[in-house]
Amino acid sequence: MNSLIPAAWAQASAAPTTGQYSSLLIPIAFVAILYFMMIRPQQKKAKDHQAMVSKLAAGDEVVTSGGILGRIVEVGDAFLTIEVADGVRVKVQRGQVTSLMPKGTLKSA
Asked: What does the alpha-carbon distance between residue 109 and residue 67 come to, in Å, rounded to a whole number?
């Protein structure tokens, strides 16, 4: 019986059946899925918002991030003056405009 124990310890381990790069496949796939599901759509949304903000002009009706609906009266480099009611003007940063509304929205609100 003593002769079986050293033979068992002397046996070589089985060769791995998977390639050396297959263990990297899952993390790489995870990063790719993360990029296409989260990062890329966020970048596209930010790019679209920047394009919308750069095209703002006087007379456009907008909604700010605070929920204020108004008509742009004056456009500056960093700030916009928005008229929210007759004679009531509010100055906001350009980046705080979240959406451009169709013409006539302010009259119906």
From this structure: 13
